[in-house]
């Protein structure tokens, strides 16, 4: 089997069901799988966006344990952790994904990373054993910008290491995202 075929079969088997899809399944109404390729998405997507709901209600309406929030970002645990510590840092504003970001979002991305680092540090985690990254379109299920912060990397399963493998065509590092802005 060629490498590209292998990648394709891995993708079709696993990557269309990433962990955050479970979050989508547990929320209602279901998020449309249709996504608009604009930074702000559209009104309909926003109204049904689970991450917007979490951000707007401070986690109350969604029973989410908010770890940190300010005017720009909100952080909470991933509903299906890939390791002992698995935090999502989302933009408070509805931004579709990392690919639609522009130079205006540079400070936001940096803040998302800094927030993730700070939260890990507060839990006494070695920062060199933390994985950071964004899904890269079209491989994501929640159409709202979110940074995955996962530690310890050494405890991640084989499958999780594939799903959250840095700088593949489905998952990219903050440095890569920043380099495009
Ligand atoms: Zn995700
Ligand atoms: Zn949203």
TrEMBL record:
- Pfam families in the cross-refs: DcpS_C
Task: Give the range the annotation lists for the signal sequence.
Answer: 1-26
List the Gene3D superfamilies.
HIT-like
Q: What does the record give as the reaction this protein catalyses? A: adenosine 5'-phosphoramidate + H2O = NH4(+) + AMP
Annotated HIT domain ranges read: 50-159
| GO molecular-function terms, A-Z | hydrolase activity; nucleotide binding
InterPro entries according to UniProt: Histidine_triad_HIT, HIT-like, HIT-like_sf
Catalytic center at which residues?
146
Motif residue range(s): Histidine triad motif: 144-148
* Keyword Endoplasmic reticulum set for record: no
SUPFAM superfamilies linked: HIT-like
Query: What keywords are annotated for this sequence in UniProt?
Result: Hydrolase, Nucleotide-binding, Signal
Tell me which family the UniProt entry assigns to this protein: Belongs to the HINT family.
The cross-references to PANTHER family, in alphabetical order and at most eight, read: ADENOSINE 5'-MONOPHOSPHORAMIDASE HINT3, APRATAXIN-RELATED
Q: Which protein are we looking at?
A: Adenosine 5'-monophosphoramidase HINT3
């Amino acid at each position: 089997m060629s490498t590209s075929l292998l990648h394709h079969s891995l993708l079709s088997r696993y990557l269309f069901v990433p962990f955050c899809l479970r979050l989508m399944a547990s929320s209602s109404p279901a998020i449309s799988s249709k996504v608009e390729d604009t930074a702000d998405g559209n009104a309909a997507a926003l109204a049904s966006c689970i991450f917007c709901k979490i951000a707007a209600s401070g986690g109350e309406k969604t029973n989410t344990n908010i770890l940190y929030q300010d005017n720009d970002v909100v952080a909470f645990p991933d509903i299906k952790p890939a390791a002992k510590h698995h935090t999502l840092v989302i933009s408070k504003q509805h931004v579709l994904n990392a690919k639609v970001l522009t130079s205006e979002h540079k400070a936001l991305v940096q803040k998302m990373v800094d927030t993730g680092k700070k939260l890990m540090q507060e839990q006494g985690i070695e920062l060199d054993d933390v994985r950071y990254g964004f899904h890269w379109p079209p491989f994501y299920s929640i159409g709202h910008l979110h940074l995955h912060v996962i530690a310890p990397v050494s405890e991640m399963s084989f499958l999780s290491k594939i799903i959250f493998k840095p700088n593949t065509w489905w998952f990219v590092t903050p440095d890569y995202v920043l380099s495009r802005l």
